[in-house]
Amino acid sequence: MGDIRILDPSDLGVLIAKLRKHGFRVMGPTRRGDAIVTGEIRSISDLPRGVGDTQEPATYRLTDRGDGAYFGFAAPAQSTKPVFFPAGEVVWRGRRDHDRGGHFSVERDKVDAAPVALLGVRSCDLRAVLIHDQVLSARRYKDAHYTARRDGTLVIAVACGDPAATCFCASMGTGPRPGSINPYTAEPSYDLLLTEVLDKDTHHFVAEIGTDAGRELADAVGAAEGTTKDKARAIQITDAAATFQTRRIDRKNVRAVLKASAESPRWEDVASRCLACTNCTMVCPTCFCTTVSDVSDLAGESAERHRVWDSCFSANFSYIHGGPMRESTKARYRQWITHKLSSWEDQFGMLGCVGCGRCIAWCPAGIDITEEAAALGRMSGLGSKTSAAMT
User: Fold this and answer.
1) 357 within 8 A of 55, measured Cβ to Cβ
2) I need a surface site. Which of 62, 72, 188, 301 has the fewest CB within 10 A?
3) Residue 105 has what pLDDT?
4) Residue whose C-alpha is closest to residue 151's, from 113, 109, 189
5) What is d(CA 157, CA 169) in angstroms, rounded to the nearest whole number?
6) Dihedral through CA 314, CA 138, CA 158, CA 239, nearest 10?
7) Cβ(272)–Cβ(356) below 8 Å
8) Nearest partner of 79 among 49, 22, 121, judged by Cα
9) Beta bridge partners of 5
């Protein structure tokens, strides 16, 4: 079957080398201190081989798997979002031009970066990239910097076989196995999809071809032909991963639940626990709120405008003349979850959550978005009676 190939673990090193030789900046999971993050991959040794993770509410720990798995962990601590939408960047630079009477000349900053090859991107994070494509690049007014960085991206996705306790992508329809077609454009969503098979007697990758570019890459590393049996094994791994997930969101009803819950007493309850620390929005792969920061030198000769990530949990995010519109933590949490699970669909025709579970793991108070949505559903009478975290 021509669309299925088999890669040996050593083929990953060849693949990385060929991508870099063709001018791609390879970005994927790598260990940095006590976390797996998305960073530049220069060789196979940069991948977190044998490293697993434990993610629970307010908990993130790396573990030693005791095997040779290259992708034996759940979602990295940070998604691929900073690759195309960095936490801070220069928008324009200005300098006083004394030859023109001291007037300022201003130049927009331009992105000058190599095309990106995403290696090992998880299904939830790939869906988040596709959502950002629609929000930042597909509308009338494009985000020029995002669009420039995203142009020419090659995607080598990895299906998830080891979800964390915080994951709920299966209920969101975003994983653990990515669909071959972009649900928003009907184009291919990946070039290659790898599923790591690590049994007692075998360790290899089942590679599913998504595009001609993916086929050329598989040919270039000499990947062997696979069979329908190999694909069935890959599907079995991700089906088991979906079954492992105990958290869920009722995405069919959650939009209506949030619309009906504007005055729910649950907001006071969650506000009493929420620290408004912004962690959930900083690790969320779909949040895109920003603010601007202007800086200048002491002599007044040069100035820059920077765009930096912001959060709807920050006190000044909703500031207008006279003060912030959302002064309380209650109002800010209500804004965040309502946007993610309800009004995002009104704006963009999709939900703004991909079920990666990072907001649960990285919340210092262990607030669980799936439990908050379920509690609101129960209180409104519109949601499922099943607990969000099922046992």
Assistant:
1) yes
2) 301
3) 86
4) 113
5) 15
6) 90
7) no
8) 121
9) 207, 225
